[in-house]
Specification:
Length: about 375
């Protein structure tokens, strides 16, 4: 296990090999260790891997020295490494093309929880923003949802704090190594989160909280959630980056509306105006949109599975999934078929046109 981890960390340290290329290398080589022993001529034949990257891989044995130090840090501080393709890697991130190949996690929360809600917003919320954030999280008290955010000032830390007060698990996705807490002021709440949630990062120890790290952090927040809520944001706020990424991942994005002309309302209101986010006013609206309300009556009708006739070879395995479960989330379909999100979305759309499936809020699909 330690030997595998050594090469897995080493893979993330090779210059010129990002998350996308790393996944290609893993797919063709079979394991991180095999990547390091392949010849340059073989690596060059892998789609997306050119001569420069291949040369970088074959001349990068030195990164294993740094990787060995990180293995020691992981064992010393009980960090849990989550490697792409492993059983405990967050399933929602598996279908994001640029998701991290390796994550570092410390905590108690299940990153594959049934309901995961990301709450993001400005670092300097107004009185209204503070009140709405608290109200929103309070309204989620009995849902069992996992609340995630970025542990930053403002809306982020307020969402974490309120989640803890309501007995909800909450995970902070940080833009630095797990050998520190940033901002330092949030050290106390971060320690509480380790017992009722956790901290997650794709940066190894020693990585400072540099500005360039936070947009990378945002893609994890966006990919890990089912629903992302923007509370308050300026027109160019970092929360809009997260919302844009979430939309690209086919996630459900929501925004609490603000007063027209308010600088902190420009970002969220803009998302709503451009149909990039649905308007919600409270937790009840969110739960209704995601169909997470326990009071919603389930249909007693047993859906009939259509005969798998006149279906394409790609449509058949998708329709077959509904034999065991009449309602499925798009992530479940991707996981079962091993098709990418883009392909599954196209197949589901065609099946809707054929009146075999219908879409529901929350990226759920059911038989007609």
């Amino acid at each position: 296990m330690t030997q595998d981890l050594l090469y897995q960390i080493g893979l993330t340290l090779i210059e010129g090999v990002g998350d996308v290329n790393a996944k290609s290398l893993l797919a063709y080589c079979g394991s991180a260790q095999e990547v390091f022993v392949q010849k340059k001529s073989h690596l060059q034949k892998i789609p997306g891997i050119g001569e420069i990257v291949a040369r970088s891989v074959t001349s990068s044995k030195a990164v294993l020295v740094r990787a060995e130090k990180e293995v020691e840090f992981i064992h010393k501080y009980n960090i849990k490494p989550l490697f792409f393709g492993s059983a405990d890697y967050p399933r929602r991130l598996k279908y994001c093309s640029d998701s991290p190949v390796l994550l570092y996690y410390k905590g108690t929360a299940n990153l594959n929880a049934e309901k995961i809600i990301a709450i993001v917003g400005t670092r300097r919320p107004s009185k209204y923003g503070i009140e709405k954030t608290i109200e929103l999280v309070n309204g989620l008290e009995n849902t069992g949802a996992l609340i995630i955010s970025g542990l930053a000032y403002g809306v982020d830390v307020l969402a974490h704090k309120t989640a803890l007060e309501n007995g909800l698990e909450t995970v902070g996705v940080v833009g630095h190594g797990l050998d520190r807490i940033y901002p330092q002021l949030h050290d106390k709440i971060a320690k509480k989160m380790l017992k009722q949630g956790g901290l997650l990062s794709d940066f190894m120890s020693g990585t400072a909280p540099d500005a360039v790290n936070f947009p990378k952090r945002n893609r994890i927040v966006a990919g890990l959630c089912d629903a992302l809520v923007v509370v308050e944001s300026k027109r160019t706020g970092g929360s809009l980056i997260t919302a844009t990424i979430a939309n690209s991942y086919n996630k459900d994005v929501f925004s609490l509306p603000g007063r027209a002309g308010d600088v902190l309302a420009e970002g969220g209101n803009g998302l709503i105006k451009r149909n990039r986010a649905a308007l919600i006013e409270n937790a009840e609206d969110l739960l209704y949109a995601m169909q997470w309300q326990e009071t919603v009556k389930k249909s007693t009708r047993t859906p009939q599975i259509p005969l798998l006739l006149n279906l394409s070879e790609e449509e058949k395995p998708v329709m077959a999934l509904f034999e065991a479960k009449p309602s499925l989330h798009i992530d479940e379909i991707c996981q079962a078929t091993q098709f990418p999100v883009s392909k599954v979305s196209a197949i589901l759309l065609q099946l809707e046109f054929s009146n075999l499936l219908r879409s529901k809020p929350g990226k759920l699909y059911e038989l007609t």
